[in-house]
Specification:
With 98 residues, this protein is mainly α. 53% of the residues lie in helices and 10% in strands. The chain has a three-stranded antiparallel sheet with strand order 1-3-2. The longest helix has 19 residues. The chain is globular, with a radius of gyration of 13 Å.
C-alpha cells in the first residue's frame, strides 16, 4: 500500500470503524473468492449495495434503509459503519471480510 493510500485511509476514519464503498466491494469480492459456495449471494448483495450507494450519491431515497452512510467532510465520500455492513451482509446470508 502506498503512502498516499494509507494516509487517506487513516484520514477517512479506518481506525474508527468506517469503510468506503470501495472497501465494501473489495471485501465482498474477496469473500466470493474464498467461499465459492456463497459467491452468488455475495454477488447479489454487491449489486444491491451498488444500487443503494448510487441512490445515496444522488440524494435519492435509498432502497436499503439498514445501510446508513455519512458523508466524509474532507474527502466528500460516503462512509459506512463497518459493524453495520457486516451485520447487513450476515443477515442477508452472505459473508464479508473487511
Amino acid at each position: 500500500m502506498g503512502i498516499r493510500l494509507s494516509l487517506k485511509k487513516e484520514l477517512m476514519g479506518n481506525a474508527q470503524g468506517q469503510v468506503t464503498a470501495e472497501d465494501i466491494r473489495q471485501g465482498l469480492s474477496l469473500a466470493m473468492k474464498v467461499e465459492p459456495a456463497l459467491s452468488r449471494i455475495n454477488f447479489e448483495l454487491m449489486s444491491r449495495f451498488n444500487d443503494n450507494h448510487a441512490k445515496l450519491q444522488y440524494q435519492q431515497t435509498p432502497c436499503e434503509p439498514e445501510l446508513i452512510a455519512q458523508k466524509h467532510r474532507l474527502f466528500n465520500e460516503l462512509m459506512y459503519s463497518k459493524e453495520h455492513m457486516q451485520s447487513w451482509v450476515q443477515n442477508n446470508g452472505g459473508d464479508i471480510s473487511l
